[in-house]
Design goal:
The complex is a heterodimer of chains A (287) and B (320). Chain A is mainly α and 287 residues long. Chain A has twelve helices and no strands. Chain A has a single domain, classed as MetI-like (MetI-like fold, Orthogonal Bundle). The radius of gyration of chain A is 25 Å and the shape is flat. Chain B is an all-alpha fold and 320 residues long. In chain B, 71% of the residues lie in helices and 1% in strands. In chain B, strands 1-2 form a two-stranded antiparallel ribbon. In chain B, helix 2 crosses helix 13 and helix 8 packs across helix 9. Chain B starts with a helix and ends in an 11-residue tail after the last helix. Classes of the chains: A mainly alpha (287), B mainly alpha (320). At the A-B interface, helix 1, helix 3, helix 4, helix 5 and helix 6 of A face helix 1, helix 2, helix 4, helix 5 and helix 6 of B.
Chain lengths: 287, 320
């Protein structure tokens, strides 16, 4: 009896089948991405009225949440960029010995800590201070608590991306500057940092992209506010927590507002992601 | 002037240790050490706030199945169980798909398609968790209830895992959304592992007359299996810590479940769901103790993953 299809044909068809299966996997990943973007546009766009974009949530808008997110990103960047970049400089330029290994390990552990745990920490930290009378009790749910949480998430990301960026600068550039008699700190500040500026920007943008969409830590620390920013020691609204509150609310109008806020949040986050890659591309072209 | 200094001190080990250098090195060292200090502070603070719960509940916390703020009795067992089951579903569904993507991107796709497609898959990681949650409530949940869960039931309904009336906001939906969320991590790291396979491996298989799939299976996948395994562990690390998308889709019931079509709760979702309602210091302490457990679990998972795939990692990948 002869086998209906010979062995080589079978192998070739199986090859085609497996290639098709791999392609299907790509499709399976793109399906949710496409669906999320499409639903956000279709359900969210009608919610984007002038009133929605300019009024605080007390009056049915999300302007206070947009403002809150920008304030939090600004404050967190103010803390995390200098601290993160200095840590990166230490790791790349000074931390050669055993201490460097330990610092790098701890920074890595911090990048992997679940963000909800960081939220618990920021809340517990301020609560502990408040219970011992060092800070007022109102500070527990406040802009400051939220900034502590987001900074704890952003610092290790900026530290590791800056370290990688600094390491890409060739040693010869440092040696050239040192050979001219320029002190080490000025070599780092005036030669090494400028030549990897775009990589540092990418790292900063990556950090902002991570914290801008964080919800759980803010849910635990911001408190709830339906009005515009009223002080660093007061609760504040933010886009991600606002989306959550709108999403679990029982009314259809609020659910639609959740999609509207999501649309803005997604566009913002995708924009930052794409921008950080554009900076990489720019660098590649310049070289 | 500096040149002079170097000439004068020509034989000294540190040619240019100006005061400015010492200050700068000191400052950056101090900042770096304070970042280490921050992690120590985190651990100490979590322990301090959880202390009351650790003292009252003891080891029973890990096995007790009741979470009741009226009788002030707190146990973590259903949440640990929920975390394990949802992460298990996520891996079961997410790993094969991610592997398919990695194979397509590194072995099969035409060169002009690789970069844009890699970028688009990575965009899945840029969508905020809360947006996944929103999509889970209003799009995926209903689709699960109406199409997918009855479909699965009609095939595998004889298993106790798939019994009961599908409700759409249950453990299975949370697992599916986790699977989607860990795909970018696993596929990116697996792709790096596949790209690290030397071309001589592929050429050897091809020269023996292997088809493209046979080459991939015999020469590429076998060579990269440690990296692929590590990538999956890394995805697991992301899944256990994921909070908002799970909180919004899992149905939030603090109890054991027999069927995947029942609501449940994970450690992370219990923390997010109960946090603002915690009425006593003991309940707050119990939630913080849950956080400590979560931190420990993700630390172990990520350390293991790093051991396997550390060289393929870029910053920011890993647990959320």
């Amino acid at each position: 009896m002869k086998f209906p299809v010979d062995r080589d044909t079978r192998r070739r068809w199986f090859d085609v089948f497996m290639s098709g299966a791999a392609l299907v996997c790509v499709g399976l990943a793109l399906l949710p991405l496409g669906s999320i973007l499409m639903e956000a546009f279709v359900r969210g766009a009608p919610a984007l009225t002038p009133n929605f974009l300019t009024q605080p949530s007390l009056l049915g808008g999300i302007a206070n949440a947009i403002q809150g997110t920008f304030i939090l990103i600004g404050l967190t960047s103010l803390v995390a960029l200098p601290v993160g970049i200095l840590t990166g400089i230490y790791l790349s330029e000074f931390g050669k010995g055993r201490i460097g290994v330990v610092v790098r390990f701890f920074v890595d552990v911090m990048t992997q800590t679940p963000s909800v745990v960081v939220g618990i920490f920021a809340y517990s930290f301020v609560l502990t201070l408040a219970l011992s009378g060092l800070v007022p009790r109102t500070l527990v749910f406040s802009v400051i608590s939220g900034t502590i949480a987001l900074s704890t998430i952003m610092i290790p990301i900026v530290a590791r991306t800056s370290e990688d960026a600094l390491r890409l600068v060739p040693t010869s550039a440092r040696e050239a500057a040192l050979a001219l008699g320029i002190p080490r700190y000025r070599t780092i500040l005036r030669v090494v940092l400028p030549s990897c500026a775009s990589a540092l920007v990418t790292g900063g943008l990556l950090g902002i992209a991570r914290i801008g969409g964080e919800t759980a830590p803010l849910l635990l620390t911001l408190g709830s506010s339906r009005e515009f920013f009223s002080g660093l020691d007061q609760p504040i609204a933010a886009m991600p927590t606002q989306v959550y509150q709108f999403a679990i609310a029982p009314s259809l109008a609020e659910n639609q507002a959740a999609w509207g806020a999501s649309l803005i949040l997604v566009l913002l986050m995708l924009g930052i992601s794409i921008a950080s890659r554009a900076v990489i591309r720019l660098r590649a072209v310049k070289r | 002037m500096h040149a002079l200094r170097i000439l004068r001190g020509g034989t000294r080990a540190r040619l240019s240790a100006t005061p400015g250098d010492l200050v700068f090195e000191g400052l950056s060292t101090l900042v770096a050490l304070s970042v280490v200090g921050l992690l120590v502070v985190i651990t100490v603070i979590l322990y301090l706030v959880a202390q009351e719960s650790i003292r009252v509940n003891g080891l029973r916390f890990l096995t007790d199945t009741i979470w009741d703020s009226v009788s002030q009795r707190f146990g973590a067992a259903p949440f640990i169980y929920g975390m394990l089951v949802t992460s298990g579903i996520a891996l079961l569904l997410g790993v094969p798909v991610s592997l398919g993507i990695a194979i397509f991107l590194s072995e099969l796709a035409p060169p002009w398609l690789r970069i844009p497609l890699t970028f688009i898959v990575e965009l899945l990681a840029a969508v905020p968790s809360v947006v996944y949650g929103l999509w889970g409530i209003f799009v995926l949940g209903p689709a699960m209830r109406i199409y997918i869960e009855p479909g699965v039931q009609s095939v595998l309904g004889f298993l106790p895992l798939f019994q009961g009336r599908p409700i759409g906001s249950d453990v299975f939906t949370a697992g599916v959304i986790l699977a989607i969320m860990i795909i970018p991590t696993i596929s990116a790291v697996s792709r790096e592992a596949l790209l690290a396979v030397p071309d001589s491996q592929r050429e050897a298989a091809l020269s023996l007359g292997a088809t493209r799939w046979e080459t991939t299976r015999l020469a590429v996948l076998r060579y990269a299996r440690a990296g692929i395994f590590g990538a999956s562990i890394l995805g697991l690390g992301r899944a256990v810590g994921e909070t908002m998308a799970v909180t919004m889709t899992i149905g939030n019931r603090a109890a054991f479940f027999g069927s995947l079509f029942e609501p449940g709760q994970t450690i992370a979702s219990q923390i997010a769901g109960r946090w603002l309602d915690a009425s006593t210091p003991l309940e707050l302490g119990a939630l913080v103790e849950l956080g400590l457990i979560l931190m420990l679990v993700s630390l172990i998972i990520n350390a293991f993953a790093r051991l396997l795939v550390g060289r393929f990692l870029r910053v920011g990948e890993g647990a959320e």
